[in-house]
Amino acid sequence: MTKHTKNTMSLRARLLTGTVAAAALGAGTFGAISANAAEPAQAPAAVTADTTHPRDLRQSTHLTIDAATRAARAALDAAESENQRVTVAVVDRDGNTVVTLRGDGAGPQSYESAVRKAFTAVSWNAPTSELVKRLESAPNLKDIPGTLFLAGGAPVAAKGAPIAGIGVAGAPSGALDEQFARAGVAALTR
Amino acid sequence: MTKHTKNTMSLRARLLTGTVAAAALGAGTFGAISANAAEPAQAPAAVTADTTHPRDLRQSTHLTIDAATRAARAALDAAESENQRVTVAVVDRDGNTVVTLRGDGAGPQSYESAVRKAFTAVSWNAPTSELVKRLESAPNLKDIPGTLFLAGGAPVAAKGAPIAGIGVAGAPSGALDEQFARAGVAALTR
Amino acid sequence: MTKHTKNTMSLRARLLTGTVAAAALGAGTFGAISANAAEPAQAPAAVTADTTHPRDLRQSTHLTIDAATRAARAALDAAESENQRVTVAVVDRDGNTVVTLRGDGAGPQSYESAVRKAFTAVSWNAPTSELVKRLESAPNLKDIPGTLFLAGGAPVAAKGAPIAGIGVAGAPSGALDEQFARAGVAALTR
Amino acid sequence: MTKHTKNTMSLRARLLTGTVAAAALGAGTFGAISANAAEPAQAPAAVTADTTHPRDLRQSTHLTIDAATRAARAALDAAESENQRVTVAVVDRDGNTVVTLRGDGAGPQSYESAVRKAFTAVSWNAPTSELVKRLESAPNLKDIPGTLFLAGGAPVAAKGAPIAGIGVAGAPSGALDEQFARAGVAALTR
Amino acid sequence: MTKHTKNTMSLRARLLTGTVAAAALGAGTFGAISANAAEPAQAPAAVTADTTHPRDLRQSTHLTIDAATRAARAALDAAESENQRVTVAVVDRDGNTVVTLRGDGAGPQSYESAVRKAFTAVSWNAPTSELVKRLESAPNLKDIPGTLFLAGGAPVAAKGAPIAGIGVAGAPSGALDEQFARAGVAALTR
Amino acid sequence: MTKHTKNTMSLRARLLTGTVAAAALGAGTFGAISANAAEPAQAPAAVTADTTHPRDLRQSTHLTIDAATRAARAALDAAESENQRVTVAVVDRDGNTVVTLRGDGAGPQSYESAVRKAFTAVSWNAPTSELVKRLESAPNLKDIPGTLFLAGGAPVAAKGAPIAGIGVAGAPSGALDEQFARAGVAALTR
Amino acid sequence: MTKHTKNTMSLRARLLTGTVAAAALGAGTFGAISANAAEPAQAPAAVTADTTHPRDLRQSTHLTIDAATRAARAALDAAESENQRVTVAVVDRDGNTVVTLRGDGAGPQSYESAVRKAFTAVSWNAPTSELVKRLESAPNLKDIPGTLFLAGGAPVAAKGAPIAGIGVAGAPSGALDEQFARAGVAALTR
Amino acid sequence: MTKHTKNTMSLRARLLTGTVAAAALGAGTFGAISANAAEPAQAPAAVTADTTHPRDLRQSTHLTIDAATRAARAALDAAESENQRVTVAVVDRDGNTVVTLRGDGAGPQSYESAVRKAFTAVSWNAPTSELVKRLESAPNLKDIPGTLFLAGGAPVAAKGAPIAGIGVAGAPSGALDEQFARAGVAALTR
C-alpha cells in the first residue's frame, strides 16, 4: 500500500487483524491498532479479511501527504514573499482536512477561513472567486455548512475530477489569497 | 469513473470544468456543479484540470453505495427477522457516514450509536466487542471524539485493510447488535 | 420497585422491568434493551405498561423504513441514470433523519445539504424550490436552524399532511436535484 | 387530526397544500405554512397530496401536549410540595423534547439534566435508577450522546411500548428526583 | 473542611456543607443537593452562608414558573383555537429557557424557532415583528448567536423592564405566531 | 435599578420601551435597545410595559459586576502572590458567566476549566473539592453538561442560598486553585 | 517572567518541569502543573527543557491581564456613566478571550456579541463600524466563524500591529457601544 | 516583526492601519486586511496605532511556522520509517492548532486525537504518557474540554516554559505514537 509495505506479512501483522488481533494485545499496548500496518494478504480466515467482492469496491484519488504538504508550503511561501501573513489549508475530496499551516502572524480568523475556502473549492471544483459569482443566482448556497464563499480557495484536480482544495486566508484581499492558493496548486504540476 | 461515464466528453462536461465552467453557468442554474459529472480527459488547458503529477496521488478503497446499501439492508433484515428494532449505519475509512437506515421503532439513542460504532470499528479495524476489551489497558481511548466502545460495530476489509465499518444499535444486547452487523458484512462476500 | 409496582407481573414483564431485569442481564449482555422487542400486550400491570389513558394519546404517521429506503434508492437511481453524483436523505415529520445514501463520488457538501433540504421540505410541506421564493417576503426564515433554502427537497404527504421530506444534493443545479427528489416521492405511489 | 379539525376543507387550506400553496402566499404572509392546518382530504391533484400507499405507512404513538403538560406539572407539584426546586422535562419516543418547566430556583445544571434523564428513560424504557445498574455490565452505554445515567427519569408507556420519558433534576438526591418523575407518570393514569 | 471553616456550624448547615454532607448522603442518595432546599436563615457562620455584603448584591425579576406556564398555555390555546399547530417557548431575561410546549403536530422547525424568537424579543424588549424592521439599518444584528428575526416573539415586562420573552412558531405566518405570543403576554395581566 | 438610575424618565427612555420604541428608532440607530436603560415607570400604555401582576414575579439575587470583578481580581491576586498562573471565572446562579480573567501565562486548558468549576460550585452550592467526593455515590453526576468535578470552584452565597460560583484553574494542584477561589469569596465579605 | 518570578529556582519548581515533574507528583497533588511556575533556567537535562533553537522562535505581544482588565473596566465605566447596560470583552490577537465583564442588567445577547465584536476588530485591526462598510464589496466576510460585523469593536495596537480587540454590546446603538469600546482603548494610553 | 518586515513603512501599509485603512479599501479589495503587513512605526496619529504603554504589554513565545512544520514532518517521517500511518499536530501554548499533517492511510480517529494530545501536552508541559498517570489522583482532569489523556503527545519548551505540543495518533500503541512525537521535538534541537 505504501512504499514501505512488504509483501510477506510478519506474524505480528497477522495477529493485528480482526478478532485474533485483539486477543493478542498485551497489557503494555494501549494505543490504537494501525489498520494498515501491513498487507496481511495471507492472513488465514480472519473475520474481516479479504472478503469484499471487487465489484463492490470503488477507488478514490487523494494527494499524498508529501504532495499536500508541498502544495501548502508553496502557497505559504508565495504569501511570505509578498510579506503577507496567512493560514493555508488543504482539504481532500471527502472534505477531510489534510494539511494546515498557520503562518507566523496570521490573524485568528484565518485558520477556519482557510479550511472552509478549501472545502468550498473542492466541493464545486472551482476557485472560490468564481463560486462567489454563483451566489447571484443561488444566494443560499452559502448556507451549506462548512462552506465559505470568499476568494482564496482553489481546486486541485486529477484527470479532470477534483481531488483536493487549497484555501488561503489572511491577506488584505481575497484576490491575493487566491493568488497564493494557485501557487500551491502550481507546485503540484512541476 | 463509474459505469455511466463515457470516454468522449460532451461540450457541457468540458464547460463544467474549472474557470470556464463557472463563467458558463446560466442564470437558471443555481445548484452545485457536479464535480465528477464526466471524465473530461480531453479538456484543454483548464486551470485545474489533469495537471497533478501521478507520483503525488494515492488511491483509497471504498464500498460502492450499492454494496453499502446492500450490507446495511442485510443487517436490518437480520434484526427484523429476530423481531428487533435497530438503526444501521455504514461509515467509510475516512469516517464519512455513507448509509444510515433508522429501522421502524428503533429507539432515539440508536441512530447516533450506530454511526459511532461503525466509526469505531473502521478506525481500529476490529469488532467493537473486541475493542471494548482494549479499554482495560487504555481506558481513555473512549474519549476520542466520534467513537463509541459498545458491541455492535464490525469492520469491512478489502485485502486486509479496513475500508468501512457497519454499526448496529437498538437491540437488547450489544452481542445481538453485533450479530446483525456481521450479517451486514457477510452480505458483501456472497 | 416503587409503590405503584404490583406483584402480579408476568415473568417477561418482570425481566424487562427494573431491578430484576438488570440482574437478569447476563455478563455477555451489555447492550440496550429493545423497548419494543415484542408485543407485551398481555403483560399485566407493569409499572410502565398500558397505563396511559387513550385520551392522552395521539398518533403520528411515518414512512416505513422499507418505503423510505425505496424512495431514497429511486432518487439515487434517477440521478445515476443522468450521470449525476448526489447524496439522498429522507427525514420524517419530527425532523429525524431516517435514511441517508451518499452516492459514489458525491461532493463532501452534499451530505449535510441533502439532510437539510429534506428537513426544510417536510417542515413547510412544500418543495424547497417553492420555499426559496418565500424568502422574498420573509428572508430570515433561512436562519432557522436545520433548514436550507435550496431547490432539491420534496415533501412526502399522506392524507394531505406532510410525513417526510426527501432531499437531494450534488447535481449541477438545484432543479436537477429536485427532479431526482421527486422521483423518490413518485416511488411511493407506484 | 385534532378535535379542531373539520371535515370540509376551506379554500385556504386547500391552497396551502403543495405547489399551489406556495404560489398563493401573499406578500403579507411571511411565516411558516402550518403543515397540518386542516385535513385537505378533497384537495385536487396537489403534487404531494394523498399519494403515499398505506402499506408504506406506520403509526407512532405520542402523548398529547395536554397530557404531557399535565404530567410535567404533576412532577413539579410533587417537588414543590416537598420544598424542592427542580426542572422537569418530557421527551417523546423519537427523542424530541415536548415540554420543559424550569421550576423557580432550580439550579442551572437541572435543565439539561432533566432533558437527558427523560431521553434516557424513553430510550431504554426503564427508570434511570435501574439503568444506572446496567452500566455495571456495559459501562460505556453512558457515552451515547444525549443520555444521562442518573436517577430521576421515568418512562411512559402505552400498550407496553415506551412513548415518552419524564425527567426531573435538581433535588438533593436522584431518588427524590425520580419520585417526582413517577408522580408525573402517575398523572397520566388518573 | 478548609482553614476558613468554623466549628460552630448548625447541624443542618454542617450536613449541607462539604465532607460531612457527602458522608451523610446515604447509599441510595446520589443526586444533587438542592441549593435552595430550605431557608437556612438561622444557619450561623457556614462557609458559604450569609456573608456577601448587601452592597454587592442586585436583584433581577423573573416570571414564576406558574406564570410562565400559564402564559405559554394561553399562547398555545390561542393557536389551537385557530386550528394552528405551533410550539411555544418562554425565555427569561438572562436568556434561559423557562418553558417549552411543543404543540400537537407542530413542525420540526418550530421548536428552535420559538425559543429563538423569545430570546430575541427579551433581548431587545420589542416584538420581533418590530425588530425585523431594525435590520434595515443594522442587517447584521441577525448574526448574533441565539437570535431569530422573524415575527412571533413578544416581550414581557415588569415596571417597564423586560423580564421574559414569549416565542411562537409554526403558524402559516409570523403575524399569526405573534398574535398567539401576545395572547400569552395578555394572560399575565388578567 | 442601579445607582445611576434616575426617577424621572427621560423622553428618550420612554421612547425606547415597547412598540413605541421600535417605531422611534431612527436610521442612525442600529444597535441594541438597552432593556433596562432607565425605570420607565411613567411610561404611558406601551404594549409590554408594567402589566405583569406582582404575584407572577419572583426575584433572584446576583453579585453586582463591581463585586464580581473584585472577587475575581482577589482570586487572581492570590494566585499571583504565590507565583501561579491561573484563569478565574465567576458564574451566576443561572449559569451565566459574569466575569473571566485569563491570567498572564495561564495554560490554554485553564479558561474553560475555570468556567466549569464555577458552574459546578454554584449548581450544588459546595466547593468542587467536596463535590468530587460525591461522585463516589453518584459517579455520573460528572456527565452533566457544563460541569467539571475538579477542586478549584467555590460557591458564593447570600442568606444561605447560592448566588454565584468562583472557579480557578491553572495552578499545579486543585487544592491551590481552590485556595485562590476562596480568596475571591473572602473579598466579598470584607 | 512576571514580577513575582525569582531567579533562583526552588527545588519544587525544578521538579515540576518535564518528565521529572510528573514522577514527583504526590498523591495529594491532582491539579494542573503550572507551566510557567518559575524560570527553571538551571534545570538539568529535562526532556523538554531549554532545547528549542532561538532561530525557531518568534514572539507575540499581548496585553497584560492588568491592562486588559483596566481597559475593560474603563469601557464599562463609560457605559455606566451614560446609564447603559453592556457587556465588555477583550480578545487577544490569537482570538482568545482574555477578559469578560457582564454589566449589571445587560441583555442576554450582549455577552456573545461583545466577544465576537472584539474578535472581529482584532482580526482585521479596524473598528467594527469600519468593517461593516467592507461588507459592501465582500459581503461574505461575515460568514467567517467567530466574527460579528456590528459597530462596537475597537482594536488595540502596539507598534502598529493589532494585539487585542475590545468589544462592547448592549447599548441602544452600535455607535454608543463603540464609543465605550474606544474609552477602553484610551485607558491603555494614559 | 519578521525577516520580511522593512523599517520604512510604505504608503499602503500606513493606509491599512486603523480608520484610514478602511476608508481606503477599493471596491476590488474584499479580503481581510493583514494586520501585521508591515511595521507602521511612523504612522501618524491613527486611532489604534502605537499607543499602548509598554508596561501594559507582555510577550509570549511561539515556534515559527517553519520550525513547527519541520517538527511535524520529522514526527511523520519517524512514523513512516516504521511503516505506521499517523496524523501529526502541533499546537501552541495558547491552544491554537499551528500545523496538522494527516498521513497517508491514517485512521479517521487520528486527526482529532493528534490535536488533543498536542493540546494536552502543552497545557501541562509533560508527555501525555506521564499525564495519564496523573489521572490516578485526579481522574476528572480528563473531562477538561480539548484534552485527551493518551500517550502520543510531547511538549516543546523554550527556557523551561512550554511553548508548543506535538501530538501523534494512529500507530498501534500510544508508546509508538509518543516515540514519533518525541522525534518531532528532537528536530527542533538539531
Q: Give the ordered list of helices and strands of chain A.
A: HHEHEEHHEEH
Number of domains of chain A: 2
CATH domain topology of the largest domain in chain A: Beta-Lactamase
Largest interface, chains and sizes: E-F, 77 and 78 residues
Q: For the CA atoms, what is the radius of gyration of chain A?
A: 21 Å
CATH hierarchy, class of the largest domain in chain A = Alpha Beta
Average pLDDT of chain A, rounded to a whole number, is 79
Query: What structural class is derived from the secondary structure elements of chain A?
Result: alpha+beta
- What general outline of chain A do the C-alpha atoms trace? globular
Oligomer: homooctamer
The CATH H-level superfamily of the largest domain in chain A is Haem-degrading domain
N/C terminus separation of chain A: 25 Å
Count of discrete alpha- or pi-helical segments spanning 4 or more residues of chain A: 6
CATH architecture of the largest domain in chain A: 2-Layer Sandwich
Major β-sheet profile of chain A: 4 strands, antiparallel
Care to count the β-strands of chain A?
Answer: 5
| Portion in beta strands of chain A | 15-25%
Protein name (chains A, B, C, D, E, F, G, H): Heme-binding protein
Organism (chains A, B, C, D, E, F, G, H): Streptomyces lavendofoliae
Pfam family, one (chains A, B, C, D, E, F, G, H): HbpS-like
Signal peptide (chains A, B, C, D, E, F, G, H): 1-37
